[in-house]
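Collaborator request, handled under Task 6.
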Amino acid sequence: MKTVRIMLVDDHEVVRMGLKRLLENVAWIKVVAEAGTVSEALQMTPALQPDIIIMDIRLPDDSGLVACRRITSQWPNIKVIILSSFGDEELITEALRAGASGYVLKQISTRELVRAIEAVQAGHAALDPVGTDRVLKRLHQMEEEHKQLAFKGLSEREMQVLWLVAQGKSNADIAELLSLSRKTVSHHVSAILAKLGLNNRIEAATYAVRHHIEDFLGQHPSP
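Structure tokens returned to the collaborator:
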């Protein structure tokens, strides 16, 4: 297996020494740097370009999540595993939002940590199982809430009109399908564009498809 280059970021030297000793017993892992603060980690990262940074969530000068966000945005090829004493679902969610590829607890076994590194290096997520189920449910709930907000303010009739616009129907087609006058359909289309901050029918159709309007409606509108 290709050597995986690791940077350890923890303000406790003993913790870093212990992690380094354990990890370097694995033939394909090499610890290339250690840091005790966010600023140190950010200073060393550009030159070293480690494959994975194992980062304590609580550091003296800033949060490990802040460092994670900066690192993953500036160097997207670098993966970050957050190391924490807390399996709190909110912290796990924040870590994922910050771009972390993994979130593990400090009481993790060496074998489990190595598996997490292996998973992250392969492009997978490595999350502590204690809070993962709750986090995934919360993320799903947030996704649903975002979907609802995408069409907030539209009436049921406007949703039907938007659905048909997304199908490429003309105002005349929509009027016939929904038993409305063309003038009424035109009014609905104008209202939809105004409420969603869009400029034309093409933007409206694209918006509807991108935000999965069919999931919101549940079924095709009936004429």
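The cover message to the collaborator said: "The chain has two domains: 4-132, 148-217. The beta strands are 4-9, 29-35, 52-56, 79-84, 102-105, 126-127. Please let us know whether this matches your experimental observations."
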